[in-house]
Each structure stands twice: as structure tokens, then as C-alpha cells.
């Protein structure tokens, strides 16, 4: 599903055939918002895919709640081409930025719920998820949800400001990512 969504993101990116040099330059300029929206959504979907993969590396069994959360998450991923197109075509409109922010916040909330359920149901895992590792994952996902949720009302004040606000996640993800690697390595050493 992740790969299909990534592929669908690229379908809107095209330059018409048969253009002269001036027309080509203009068409290339016109398509750049689609390219940037594609790159952004590719990074977002890839981050969620990586988190999904990391989470399910340790899962031995699933229950109804896990299945529902996974299906919801996959459904939200499958919808990403729509908010991506809105962002590419109408990136200056508050509604487009709000819809995109809402979509990412919803994906993050779903992944957050999945992480918490698996943490609190250790019998579903191959190994118990240590509390420090789980807490770090929860902080990381909660930060994603919070940043994109705050961007929704912010988009109606300043669409550009809301998009710039998304960058707050870069240092947060760097810190939680490094801490997560260290905590996972520590947990593996302790269990060995």
C-alpha cells in the first residue's frame, strides 16, 4: 500500500509534449509545485512506512484492534495523493494546507495508537517492548501529531506559516531518532 500511494503521487507530474523553448521553460516552472509536493509526501509516507516496518518487526500476533488500526492507517496512506494534489495545485489556500496537515496528523495519530496498543499488549510481541523505547516512540509520534494538528488552524491565519511550522519536526525527529537507536541498542544488550 505504501508503494502504491508513492506511485500514485507521481501520476500528476507531467510536462506537455511539443513545446517550444519558452513554453517548455514555463511548463517546467508550472510543474515544480507538484514536484515539491511529491517530494514532501514521499518523505512523509516513507517515514510512516519505516515506522510501520519497525513496529511490526517485533509483532508475533495481532488482534482485532491491531487489524482495525492497520487498515485505518493504510486507508489514510492511500488517500495521501488527494491532499498532495491540493497542496501542489492550491498551496496558498488555507483549506489545502489544513487538509494536508490533517491527513498527516491522522496518519500519525493512527500510528501512535498502534504503538501504544502494542506496548500495552506485550503478549502480541516477539519480545517485550521496553518502556524507554516505547516512550520514545510515543513522544516521536505525539510530536508529529501535535505539529500537524497545530498547523490546521495556523493554516487559516497563514498558509505559508503553517507549512514553515512543519519544519519544527526536523530537530525533534533528529533527537528522538538518535535517542531511539541508543535505547534499542541498550535494550538488546540487556536482553542478550
UniProtKB/TrEMBL annotation:
Query: What family is reported?
Result: Belongs to the TMEM175 family.
Q: Does the keyword Ion transport apply?
A: yes
| One Gene Ontology term of the molecular function aspect | proton channel activity
Organism (species):
Streptomyces glebosus
According to UniProt, the reaction catalysed is: K(+)(in) = K(+)(out)
Taxonomic lineage: Bacteria, Bacillati, Actinomycetota, Actinomycetes, Kitasatosporales
Membrane topology type: Multi-pass membrane protein
Its name, as the record gives it, is: DUF1211 domain-containing membrane protein
Q: Which InterPro entries match?
A: TMEM175-like
Q: Where in the cell is it found?
A: Membrane
Residue spans crossing the bilayer? 35-53, 65-86, 98-118, 138-158
Annotated GO CC locations? membrane
Q: Which UniProt keywords apply?
A: Ion channel, Ion transport, Membrane, Potassium, Potassium channel, Potassium transport, Transmembrane, Transmembrane helix, Transport
Amino acid at each position: 500500500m505504501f508503494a502504491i500511494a508513492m506511485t500514485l503521487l507521481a501520476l500528476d507530474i507531467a510536462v506537455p509534449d511539443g513545446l517550444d523553448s519558452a513554453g517548455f521553460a514555463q511548463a517546467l516552472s508550472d510543474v515544480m509545485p507538484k514536484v515539491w509536493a511529491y517530494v514532501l509526501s514521499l518523505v512523509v509516507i516513507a517515514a510512516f512506512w519505516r515506522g510501520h516496518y519497525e513496529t511490526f518487526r517485533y509483532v508475533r500476533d495481532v488482534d482485532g484492534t491491531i487489524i482495525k488500526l492497520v487498515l485505518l492507517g493504510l486507508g489514510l496512506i492511500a488517500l495521501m495523493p488527494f491532499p498532495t494534489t491540493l497542496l501542489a495545485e492550491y498551496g496558498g489556500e488555507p483549506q489545502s494546507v489544513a487538509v494536508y496537515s490533517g491527513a498527516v496528523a491522522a496518519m500519525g495519530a493512527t500510528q501512535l495508537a498502534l504503538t501504544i496498543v502494542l506496548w500495552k499488549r506485550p503478549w502480541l510481541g516477539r519480545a517485550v517492548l521496553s518502556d524507554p523505547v516505547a516512550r520514545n516512540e510515543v513522544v516521536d509520534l505525539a510530536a508529529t501529531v501535535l505539529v500537524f494538528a497545530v498547523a490546521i488552524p495556523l493554516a487559516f491565519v497563514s498558509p505559508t506559516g503553517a507549512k514553515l511550522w512543519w519544519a519544527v519536526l526536523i530537530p525533534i525527529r533528529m533527537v528522538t531518532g538518535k535517542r531511539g537507536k541508543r535505547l534499542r541498542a541498550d535494550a538488546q544488550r540487556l536482553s542478550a
